[in-house]
Amino acid sequence: MNKWRQYEALVTKYSVPQTVAGRRFNLVKPEAGLLKEQTPEARALDELGLQSICCRRMMLTHQDILDDVL
């Protein structure tokens, strides 16, 4: 499994899924207290061992649009 799919799975695991207008997105759990705990994205990146800022940036800014194009 590639890192992107693992990252997606972990973020989903640590987030609260929501759907608006047919589009799925994840909300940070209310009890997370953003200043006290990491966001789901940060937890997933740490768990995958992605410590370099360039690797983290690529994962955080990636747009998974291949399914929309095909």
Structure description:
The chain has 70 residues and is an alpha+beta fold. It has one domain (3-69). Helices cover 47% and strands 14% of the residues. It contains four helices and two strands, in the order H-E-E-H-H-H. The protein has helices at 3-14, 40-47, 53-61, 66-69; strands spanning 16-20, 23-27. It has a two-stranded antiparallel ribbon with strand order 1-2. It is globular and about 35 Å long. The relative contact order is 0.17. GO terms for molecular function: DNA binding; DNA-directed RNA polymerase activity. It holds the Pfam family RNA_pol_N.
What features would you highlight for this structure?
DNA-directed RNA polymerase activity; about 70 residues; alpha+beta
Topology of this structure?
Elements: H1 3-14, E1 16-20, E2 23-27, H2 40-47, H3 53-61, H4 66-69
Whole-number total of structural domains: 1
Rounded to the nearest angstrom, the distance between the terminal CA atoms is 21 Å
The number of strands is 2
Shape: globular
| Percentage beta strand | 5-15%
Structural class: alpha+beta
Number of helices: 4
Name the helix and strand elements from N-terminus to C-terminus, one letter apiece. HEEHHH
The Rg value, from CA coordinates, equals 13 Å
Low-confidence stretches: none
Strand order of the largest sheet: 1-2
GO biological process, one term: DNA-templated transcription
InterPro entries: RNA_pol_su_RPB10, RPABC5/Rpb10
GO molecular function: DNA binding; DNA-directed RNA polymerase activity
Structure at a glance:
GO terms for molecular function: DNA binding; DNA-directed RNA polymerase activity. Helix content is 47%, strand content 14%.
